[in-house]
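S.,

Sequence below, as promised.
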Amino acid sequence: MAYISSISTYVPPWGEAGQRVPGGDEDAVTMAVEAGRAALEAAGTGAVERVVLVSRDLPLLEGGNSAALLAGLGLPPDTDVVERLGGAPAALDAILTARPRTLVTAADLGPAGAGAVVVSSNGFTLRPVGRVTRSLPVQARSSNGVIHRYDDPRLLRERGLLASLDRLREPGNGLEGRPSAIAGAPFAQVRALCDGEPPRLPVLGASATVFALAALAERKEPAVLAAAEQASLTAAALDTSGGEPAHVRRLEPLARAVPTAQTTPGLDMPVSLAAYDRAFESKVGWKAARCESCGTLALPRRYRCRGCGAEGEWSLVPLPRRAVVYTTTTVHVPVPSLTTPYSLAVVQLDGTDVRVLARTTAVEPGSVSIGDTGRMTLRRVAVRSGVPDYGYAFWPDDVPAGREEEVR
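The prediction came back faster than expected:
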């Protein structure tokens, strides 16, 4: 049994054909960080000593995503990280089996969304009901990345979801009656299979479990959640009557059309892993060097302090994530291997004399002005030689909010 103290959900601001799509600077890691930081705002980074990332869209299968994930979340580099491949049932299993002080994050690219849950020693309870693991690979993807689809929706419904629900309802298997919500299947299919009106979820993958948990927690009623993927199914019972209520934070801006852009053909810029290594802790962890003698901040780190002239005496300190635009420009000139147009801004970080050059995100190019306020958020700046290069972009406050709220 798990106790959940904080839940957060995130969807990108871009929509296409009725679904959310990731921005060109987003991937599973950046979306997991977006949701994870929102969950940690209520719980605090000190409440977490282990992180689990569940997704079928991990940017790197070899090379690791853990360091970027921890740096973006603001957690120590010695935090235990588990990267788990899977969909909605895997996410629910990860939450059910998590020990206290664990952050479980889940992210999907199509439809795009992410969610995070903090498992602690208090909060509402989530108890395992049953699990069915069966094989019906109507969609298969091997190590070469090629996706094979067996296009038979009726087979998937009859021998997948329905057969697994029936198996779970057999005596001794745990499930009685109908679930309150089913994550991982289209709303049109699950509506007739649930007890009452199920929540409408914007995603179908691993993060669907977190979106469903958030919706059921907001109802503040006992409920049963089922998580499905092809023919596998996990069910859990949710009880919000005992313990402290969970914080539910939703970052769900209104969907807008993807901005028109063009990518100019050309050779990609190769990665320099030496430069990558030098900049990683400061750039991805969002930290500045502070002079030990006079306290002057420098980003990037300098050898000689411009405040007092001391040399080599620096320590890294976290930077504020709130900022105001000092100046901005929009690049329209085609750049090989880059998508144009895009906007750049020099932003002044709150409470410091540090100014940073960053791209804008979550808004159309050219829509940011001098004096606009916003926050710095982790984004994928580029992919160089197959390696995601992460940095920070400026997210203005005037993005249409949609659902950006906290429920206790």
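DSSP finds seven helices and 26 strands in the chain.

Coffee later?
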